[in-house]
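User: I'm writing a tutorial on reading structure tokens. Could you give me a worked example: one chain, its sequence, then its tokens, then a sentence or two explaining what the tokens reveal?
Assistant: Sure. Here is the example chain.
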Amino acid sequence: MLIDGRASVQFGGDRALWFRVTSVCDKPTYHGCVWLTGYSIDLATGRALARREVFVQIAGLQIQRRKTESAPPRNAVPAKRRRGV
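And here are its predicted structure tokens:
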């Protein structure tokens, strides 16, 4: 997901952060906010750079779907398991 100034002022401007979430803290916090744990991501390679914990406004988070061209669709049946083929 993209974390920028809409989610937290500390990530405004050129300090925006691509982030892969590994967990969401269930402790109470301010209404509409949450602590996320995960990794900052190098967008060019998709590799994790550093483990981080960030405090953000949920409404400002911008979720991006993973684009994997090598993975089959979830409802696809592997060729070896198809009947009559």
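What the tokens reveal: Strands lie at 2-3, 17-24, 33-42, 47-57. The first strand starts at residue 2 and ends at 3.
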